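Teaching soon. Got one?

===
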Amino acid sequence: MNTVRALKSIIKPKVFERLHFHPDLDSLKKVIRPDLLPVDFGGDGLSLQELEDAQEEKYRKNQDLFDRIDEIKVDESLRPQKLEDSDFLGYYGNFKKLDID
């Protein structure tokens, strides 16, 4: 429980209220179905190692997608120039100059 107290001191109260701590695996199994829990935690699901291997395989399988995403950049030459002052739009980004009839 020292870990819980340490977390409580550094986490915002609203966030801390959303966390649930279980004293043992039996109380955890009352909240989470055993087929969703890894075998390592007394469940019927895959082991943590099997889950890690499956996730790593997904990353490897989609590596080309991740590489393409890393290469995406904004073309700043297409960005419109800032308007200093305009009779029609007012100052750039300022909506206070609205004439409503």
About this structure: The chain has a mean pLDDT of 86. DSSP finds five helices and no strands in the chain. Residues 40 and 49 are 9 Å apart (CA to CA).
